[in-house]
């Protein structure tokens, strides 16, 4: 039996490419997204939602739809070497390429279209959203649950700026999004090439940086050329 799922919204995100997207929600608190509902969903569809602190967002990993899936994947948490079953991971390479993120709901705008602004996002720009639900703590918060091979937050990189001019050209919010995103170490888990220059398209910028030991150094920032 087959089913058709229609998208209900699109995401406007600072992450313009897969490289650099936070690997889990909440790891980059400064990463704010706007979830813009389709025109047929009016203010009535979100009545009461503003009273919740967090929302579940079901979405499609549209950036990897053409890459297929595998029953075994290599989680970054295990160094990219050990394999786990796809259903024991949050890999985007899934049979139906469906994702789920828990985001902090900051505010809702109900103008011409309904817009939900959320922080701590791990969503690629233009991500198709298929459902939104409120987070209910007493039902869904299980502090004593076993977490398998995932033990606490991943270790973060220290982030340095090669010179002060790179920082002063940006607003504090822009600096926070860039710094927090790079601190998550977007490299493939198996890659450690100190001389390599990485390029991340984030916000309206192309950010270049290098990683040596546990420190990432931002060496250049320029407006992204579409």
TrEMBL record:
Domain named TsaA-like: which ranges?
5-144
Q: Name the GO terms of the biological process aspect.
A: methylation
PROSITE patterns from the entry? TSAA_1, TSAA_2
InterPro entries the UniProt entry points to: TrmO-like_N, TrmO_C, UPF0066_cons_site, YaeB-like, YaeB-like_sf, YaeB_N_sf
**What SUPFAM superfamilies does the record point to?**
YaeB-like
State one Pfam family annotation: TrmO_C
Q: Any idea which UniProt keywords this protein has?
A: Methyltransferase, S-adenosyl-L-methionine, Transferase
Mention one GO molecular function.
Answer: methyltransferase activity
Q: Does the keyword Transferase apply?
A: yes
Family stated for the protein in its record:
Belongs to the tRNA methyltransferase O family.
Q: What is the protein's given name?
A: tRNA (N6-threonylcarbamoyladenosine(37)-N6)-methyltransferase TrmO
Gene symbol of the encoding locus = tsaA
């Amino acid at each position: 039996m087959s089913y058709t799922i229609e998208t209900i919204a699109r995401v406007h995100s600072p992450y313009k490419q897969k490289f650099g997207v936070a690997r889990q929600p909440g790891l980059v608190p400064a990463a704010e997204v706007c979830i813009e509902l389709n025109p047929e969903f009016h203010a009535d569809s979100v009545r009461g939602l503003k009273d919740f602190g967090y929302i579940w967002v079901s979405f499609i990993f549209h950036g990897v739809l053409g890459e297929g899936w595998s029953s075994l994947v290599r989680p970054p948490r295990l160094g990219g070497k050990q394999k786990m079953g796809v259903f024991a991971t949050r890999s985007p390479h899934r049979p139906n390429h469906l994702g789920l993120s828990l985001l902090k709901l900051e505010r809702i705008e109900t103008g011409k279209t309904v817009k939900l602004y959320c922080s701590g996002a791990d969503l690629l720009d233009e991500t198709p959203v298929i459902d939104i639900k409120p987070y209910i703590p007493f039902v869904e918060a299980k502090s004593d649950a076993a977490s398998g091979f995932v033990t606490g937050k991943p270790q973060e990189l220290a982030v340095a700026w090669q010179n002060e001019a790179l920082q002063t050209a940006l607003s504090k919010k822009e600096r926070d999004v860039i710094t927090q995103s790079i601190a998550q170490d977007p490299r493939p888990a198996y890659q450690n090439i100190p001389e390599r220059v990485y390029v991340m398209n984030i916000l309206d910028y192309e950010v270049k940086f290098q990683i040596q030991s546990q420190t990432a150094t931002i060496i250049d920032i320029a407006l992204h050329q579409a």
